[in-house]
Design a protein that fits this description.
3 helices, two-stranded antiparallel ribbon, mainly alpha
Length: 80
């Protein structure tokens, strides 16, 4: 998940960790199935767009926390 290049830590594939999670995929599919029953196409599109924005923000926050914890672990490993 983490890669190190020129002393910079980054996630090698920033979406892979969640897109391989079966529970996440099950809930996304359930959400899309429910939205599919909305007849108003504009409302349907707005709801999906808003969900994708929320998902993107949450993904970014999670990845930032992963990196923070990784760096913390590195520092603690050097102290031992």
């Amino acid at each position: 998940m983490f890669s190190k290049k020129n002393k910079t830590i980054y996630l090698s594939n920033n979406r892979e960790w969640k897109e391989k999670n079966k529970e996440y995929l099950m809930h996304v599919q359930s959400f899309l199935d429910k939205v599919d029953n909305i007849e108003n196409e504009g409302l349907k599109r707005d709801i999906i767009t808003q969900m994708l924005k929320c998902d993107s923000i949450l993904t970014k926050l999670a990845e930032e926390e992963f990196i923070k914890q990784y760096k913390k672990g590195q520092k603690e490993a050097y102290l031992v």
